[in-house]
Amino acid sequence: MAKKKDNTKAASSSPMDLGMLEQMTRLMKENDLNTVDVRDGDKRVILKRGAPIVPTGSGYIPQFASAVQTQSAAPGAPAGAAPAEDANLLSIKSPMVGTFYSAASPDAKPFVSVGTQVEEETDVCIIEAMKVFNNIKAECRGTITKVLVDNGETVEFGQVLFLVKPG
What we know:
It is built from two helices and 13 strands; from the N terminus they run ααβββββββββββββ. By secondary structure, it is mainly beta. A five-stranded antiparallel sheet has the order 5-6-13-11-8, with no helix packed on it. It has a four-stranded antiparallel sheet with strand order 10-9-7-12, with no helix packed on it. A two-stranded antiparallel sheet has the order 1-2.
């Protein structure tokens, strides 16, 4: 049973609904979400968890240390493991669970494709999680060699989205 709060005066003077914030943080935890951005008119709430915050020119965004890692092909790796030619490639991984979109809109061209040169700040895709659209950055330099996810496909946290030849 929910505990009734006796701070109606404080809540009414607050620009945010504390009950809604509690619900959003609970949903973030239950669904392993790192960021939620909600806007209602001139009010905006951005909730972030589980990642260090790094300042950027347009505000603060979480940086996911595990988003870019080298792909390794271990000897005797299980079926579906990266082949030897992929051993020296970098992988761009999904920082969250959601729906993968290769372009900003259905009629727009994809952010990147095989052969595209990327820099650390290059947008490579969008991942939608709970109606929030998150631009995903390459976080590495090089050339896209493989796109491993289809547009509209559901992706998991840590799933490899792209392989990049460093350079």
